[in-house]
Records
---
Amino acid sequence: MSELSVNHLLGIKYLNNDDIKLIFETADHFKEVINRPIKKVPSLRDITIANLFFENSTRTKLSFELAEKRLSADVINFSASQSSVKKGETLIDTVNNILSMKVDMVVMRHPNPGASVFLSNHVNASIINAGDGAHEHPTQALLDSYSIRERLGSVRGKKVVIVGDILHSRVALSNIFALKTQGAQVMVCGPKTLIPKYIDKLGVTVETNLKKALNWCDVANMLRVQNERMSVSYFPSAREYTQQYGVNMKLLKSLDKEITIMHPGPINRGVEITSEVADSDQAIILDQVQNGVAIRMAVIYLLASKIKQ
């Protein structure tokens, strides 16, 4: 397969296994480019990309921007907190204004689930979802799976546990879709209050005991607790959460085997994982960051090649 089956990246649930494979093979090529002395390729010299962030983001935004510049695209950055959105302008007005500047692709993060799907139906440009509310974050899930493939050889058959605030996490949902599509076994682990009711419909198992979950898995993807999305308290205190669901070196050493630790960032050091774990050889957190640029280059390049047709 030499092209994606989709014209937008709205969510992992719209991708098939061949799409994911193609993105990974393309990312392999770009990873080699990123490690050269001259890190740019002229692939997208004639493409203009608008980054629309209606929610704060540091790592995802920087990663997309870097990926776009490495591909030699023209980039427009738009941050909603400093824009007319504050004055009541609608999403479509904002985007149409940007599109009238002849933009080919829009990378968007938005607090409302489904915002990127809505946009793709109303706007003549390729849309990449950089996170919509607590719904999906497809490029994060792709770079997570890509990092597992790099570390363990493949994703198929691997046991992956996602630990923490599953309820508010778009990373968890996208990861579940991506891992299941590639044939991994998935478990979620966290306080009952932070695990959504519908989760068993997604074909994952639920475990509330962290040590059991870690003994089961090959890879543990540690999520932070998203206090900014919580209007009520879901557990007694951060200290109690850490005692039950935090990973430290003593716990890792007590397991039957060595497991790989991942984290989508930002890390609350000392809450979900200690600094000692985050900086250890078992953690591939910095590899995830590096792979994020290669994956985003791959996604942008593959979608752009469909625009050019």
---
Amino acid sequence: MIRNYKSTDLDEIMDIWLKTNLTAHSFLKKEYWDKNFSRVKATIPNSKLFVFEEDNVIKGFIGIIGNYIAGLFVREEFQNNKIGKRLLENAQALSQDLSLDVFCKNEKAIIFYKFNGFKIIYTRKNPKTKQNEHVMFWKKANISS
């Protein structure tokens, strides 16, 4: 079930954030994620956060700031079970448009976002990591009656 974030979720969410980033972004050093851990932990409560929870286990979450997806994370052992898709569809249902950044080397995420209607708008070099990243955008289709 998808629900709103509760402050008691923070430690579990941060565990998912760190482990998933380390796996998905093996091209970046662990120190990068360790260095950003405290900043992200302080920022998370300020974003719109939705949690996917099942059997009292948080299996994934999505964080949105305005119309920007700051992150979508699913525990590795629960990936490929449509949890990410459900979280993204929830965000899309609540928005007219969404954008996000994704590292070019994270091919699995790029495929996922393209499959779910996102288009690459442009590519740039991330100033902190020096890695190329795509800026992707999704817009709700206008359905005329």
---
Amino acid sequence: MTPRRYHPALVALHWLLAVLVVAALVAGGVVLDDMPNSDPSKVASLRAHMTLGVAILVLMLVRLAVRVLTRRPAPADKGPLATVATVTHWGLYAATIGMAASGMALSAAAGLPGIVFGGEGALPPDFDGFAARAVHGVVAGILMLLILLHVAAALWHQVVRRDGLMARMWFGPR
């Protein structure tokens, strides 16, 4: 029998990751981007951002495993809209994992683990010279667009179609 709702672990991970990913995007794009590397508080901010990024990666990999291993409700749409939904959902996984990977590549290239977690040395003058920084920025933009598309689709289902789709990503009898 096809369940009416997603697995509770998937639901919990969905909403937890939604909050964490938005927090990481805000921290990276608003706080860290505007803070010069010479600012003494930059190291603590980077430590929080990097820790959050690793937590997001681990939780996203767990979510991916739960997604693959559990039964899901039937697709909400058919045809092209179902394809868009599928591509968007897998894109969210890929972009989130890509953010973590590019963040780790930037961290390694800039020597951040020793600086941020071990107090060894100083931050480089800026991160613009690192290729992984450019990738991290591009993937952030893609991730934000995918999140906007995902939220817009959820609101369309909830407000326009009124088909109860959002109840599938909440707790209750399956």
---
Amino acid sequence: MARNFRNWLLAGAGALLLNACASTPNTFSQTDPNADFDSYRTYGFHDDPATNTAEYESLVTNFLKVSVAQQLDARGMTYDPEDPDVVVNFFLNTKEKVQSRSVPTMSGYYGYRDPFFDPWPGYAYETRIDQYTEGTLNIDVADAAERKLVWEGSAVGRITEEFVRNLEKGLDQAVAAIFVNYPVPAAYAVKH
């Protein structure tokens, strides 16, 4: 019985640790206060989205179009490539970042405490350097008739190896996180 309790405790601690280490993107949005979002019924996509870097549509653009279409459909809008009320554009940017932090050392023994709490005063510290890629996804919604931006949403977060391996799913989750801030709520939950 003690062994089962110990296994349960270790499993629970591991799950808590994984959840604590998981990073979710920070999202931001700006809305034109004069825009009448209730009047927008149709949407289309910019002819040459900023996520295309060649003479053809990238997979990233394709994935983003599908995700955004699902979000706008859930908000009662209809796709109209010929005469849309709003036009959607995307931009994806990545940059390398470096983060440094001091951690306690004592022949490496007390490193297990990092980042939860510091040791007693008087311990030595070492500097650890972490390098990672940060990504920013912007989604612009522009009034097609007035040719002006009425809403922009963005997500900023670490791009992990898992994200790159599951790009479609990762972009879908980022788009969903961004659209939480859209001025018109979804009528139904979009399945990911």
